[in-house]
Amino acid sequence: MKINQPGVQGINPYQKQVNKTQGTKKAAAAPTDKLEISSAAKGMQEVSKMAKERMEKIASLKQQIAKGEYQPQPEKIAEGIVKFYKK
Questions:
Q1: Gap between the Cα atoms of 23 and 15, Å rounded
Q2: Which pLDDT score, from 0 to 100, does residue 23 have?
Q3: Is residue 69 assigned to a domain?
Q4: Keyword Transcription regulation, does the record have it (predicted)?
Q5: Residues contacting 35, CB < 8 A, separation 6+
Q6: Contact of 61 with 70, CB cutoff 8 Å
Q7: How many domains are there within the chain?
Q8: For 30, which DSSP code?
Q9: Structural domain contains residue 70
Q10: Is 9 within a domain?
């Protein structure tokens, strides 16, 4: 009788543990997708929010004008113009 490999039918009991640790290292090293939003894109998102609010305000003003309920306030208009040009 010839014995080719000593032990339990050639199975190394420590090999499973080695394979598991190598498998986790390979899984951790696998490249992953990553998404980054630039500051310019974030600024564009904020502008679109402001544009939406502005459109809602314009629609409200149009309704007030159509109903004859709009009362302009010259002081606030003047303050807004001054603030705009002082920036």
A1: 12
A2: 66
A3: yes
A4: yes
A5: none
A6: yes
A7: 1
A8: S
A9: yes
A10: no
Q: Name the DSSP letter for residue 9.
A: T
Q: Map tokens 């003047």 to a residue.
A: 78
Mind listing the pLDDT tens digit for each residue in 44-77?
777 777 888 889 999 999 999 999 999 999 999 9
Angle made by CA atoms 37, 38, 42, in degrees to the nearest 5: 80
Supply 19's token pair. 């394979």
Say if 55 falls within a structural domain: yes
Residue that is written with structure tokens 């920036």 in the block: 87
Q: Which residues of 16-31 are buried (b: 16+ CB within 10 A; e: fewer)?
A: eeeeeeeeeeeeeeee
Give the tokens for residue 66.
């159509």
- In the numeric block, which tokens belong to residue 23? 């498998």
Q: What is the secondary structure of 41-67 as a DSSP string?
A: HHHHHHHHHHHHHHHHHHHHHHHHHHH
Q: What is the pLDDT of residues 21-39, one digit of tens each?
A: 766 666 555 677 888 888 8
In the chain, the amino acid numbered 54 is: R
